[in-house]
Amino acid sequence: MFSIDHHSSPYPVGRHSTYAKNGMVATSQPLAAQAGLDILRKGGNAIDAAIATAACLTVVEPTSNGIGGDAFALVWTKGKLYGLNGSGPAPKSISIDVVKERGYETMPAHGWIPVTVPGAPGTWAELSKRFGSLSLKEVLQPAIQYAEEGYPVSTTLAKYWNYAYTQYKEKLISEEYKHWFTTFAPKGRAPKVGEVWASKDHAKTLKLIAETNGETFYRGEIAEKIANFSEQTGGFLHMDDLTAFYPEWVDPIHVNYRGYDVWEIPPNGQGIVALLALNVLKGFTFSEKDSIDTYHKQIEAIKLGFSDALKYVTEREKMPYTTEQLLSENYAETRRSLITDQAMMPEAGDPSRSGTVYLATADKEGNMVSFIQSNYMGFGSGIVVPDTGIALQNRGHNFSLDSNHANKLVGGKRTYHTIIPGFLTKGHVPIGPFGVMGGFMQPQGHVQVIMNTVDFGMHPQAALDAPRWQWLKEKQVEVEHRFPHHIAVGLAQRGHKISIQLEPNSFGRGQIIWRDPETGVLIGGSESRTDGTVAAW
């Protein structure tokens, strides 16, 4: 497969990859990973395990995702890679004029304005219907049990829960937000480390989703509760918005990088940023990872990719250029020629002339799933539908209120979306799922993980443990505190404005599962910057 050192990591974290033969689940929360593995052991396939893990994560990691969020999936099964876009559109009744009439010049982060139709429950149901081997009722049972009986809160979870509570207590003071506090802080505070947390309402909602194969959320009892609460509190989300939603099966997009095909979901997702950058980077030769020139070119390529995506990416049908134009070899060559030995101010080109959870699963039959799910910016909008446990996402925050922008707010339209699952193949052979969650860090993490694997021969855990960087804007770049100091100095000398970030989760949280095509052995790595784990057998 890869020319990698399976036994050691050159980085201080020093964890080893996990090896198994029959099945594997990698995600950011041990209880959710174990739930997915239990489903595999009961005879479920990788798709069933992914759904079970995703549903569990809405319970055991509510600071990052929920039933009221979106989801995307890449599924390898029966010799083919399938893509599922589970992102919902803006309500039909919202518009730029309506938002500006309420006094906003940019999209707010909280309240009803940024709420879009949640796609996660529909995504679970659609995956189960098309590829699952167990019923959705059986697959959601572990999540229902955790929500009903409770689980002890982990260290990382408690930290971000308390951070959200502290922020919300100061900012979310109007009546529409009170149900967030009664749902997620019923004791007048966030739960503490080791405290057992349960949510009976969450359990009831999951049961209804399981019993109706997701229909209740869009065309039944739960949909009515969401629509009624929206109407009572000045929201834009109506019953017909929910009724009209179905996830969309899409053809994944890819670029070939040094003999490997790197796959992403097409826009409205930002996976194309990683592909744009890799398409540029493949024209260079990298002899070593820890060199100033390697990091410099990575950063410059990401800047070029983001410049194009932030100007052009929105719902695919409304983009000014096609993905084929953006990912063409001629355009990559044109963009590559802009990279010098000094940091540039990024600008979009003209192709016509040339907080989230991630999980990966695999089973012994060869099925593999790359799955990502998010409420966005932690708990999302701050809007919780009473008696449901549903925290609604604020994905609409990414819309532009500039009527000339490609990603302008339009009722019924899907916005530029940050969450992206990744998948790697070689020829027609699946290597496996990978992902790095975390807002606009995600495509940057994809590029770093793929290069660590393909260019520098690292096994999955080492590829994830390696110190990361993150481009912010213009020439501003953050690096981890473990990042090599002499390289940070060298990048600064090339014109990058380097700052050291002490918070590890600023650099994303990743998971990888590779399958050795010769032996069938699964090799997994999980994020060392959080409570990540690989459950395997």
Automatic annotation (TrEMBL):
<protein>
    <submittedName>
        <fullName>Gamma-glutamyltransferase family protein</fullName>
    </submittedName>
</protein>
<dbReference type="Pfam" id="PF01019">
    <property type="entry name" value="G_glu_transpept"/>
</dbReference>
<dbReference type="InterPro" id="IPR043137">
    <property type="entry name" value="GGT_ssub_C"/>
</dbReference>
<dbReference type="InterPro" id="IPR052896">
    <property type="entry name" value="GGT-like_enzyme"/>
</dbReference>
<dbReference type="InterPro" id="IPR029055">
    <property type="entry name" value="Ntn_hydrolases_N"/>
</dbReference>
